């Protein structure tokens, strides 16, 4: 039933919601940011994006769904500012097709303006594979986003086929070590070490994804990985639960 028509209805009936997974400073244990992850609330059940994002990408409805994610994130940022006076960045996932869409940059700028959001509070996560699809396009789009002040992270780093020479020219701020390399820690650390070294050389913030246990955390701390997220700290949470966790963590 995850058809284009049902996804249209879901948008119209406001059935999507965002969950938030905290990102922590690994040295201090403080929550410094979060990642927004979409869920579909249908007939009393939560449907995972794994089962509808691929259909959304195939049919093109990922564009309006992606716009909803951008707008909802801006709304939440504004609420956090108003209700609690807290200002932590939200990272959103941008699909390949959405990244290639001609109106992406203006959509993001307009939403930030409409909701009076500082661009630094919105970070765009793009997979390494999307970036490498069309390097010229990627450089151009990222330049526009970066000069407007938005954060830019390469998601799932290490799983695609980055040309390292191009990576140097991409105006990114953050690299996320894919969780498959984190799950290899501490035993098999070759890839994680290499990504951390590369990040240091390129002056990027490194985020480790999918931290599930203390041994992985210890290795990452010892090896100067700054930021991490994963089930060891917290699953993605509904907004109110994320807010409570954030407040308790301060
Ligand atoms: O949250 P979860 O682990 O179930 O997410 C599964 C996959 O769906 C991940 O690859 C994640 O990046 C992707 N995903 C989650 N939310 C969004 C979203 O808002 N937009 C896009 N394009 N992908 C998302
Ligand atoms: O593709 P992306 O990196 O955006 O995927 C994020 C997905 O990873 C979300 O669906 C989230 O639920 C999942 N995730 C977050 N932390 C962990 C973790 O520690 N272990 C596993 N297996 N998945 C995680
Ligand atoms: Mn992501
Ligand atoms: Na990822």
UniProtKB/TrEMBL annotation:
> Where does the source fall among the domains of life?
Bacteria
EAL domain residues = 1-250
| Name used for this protein in its record | Bifunctional diguanylate cyclase/phosphodiesterase
Which species? Shewanella mangrovisoli
Segment of the intact protein contained? 422 to 671 of 684
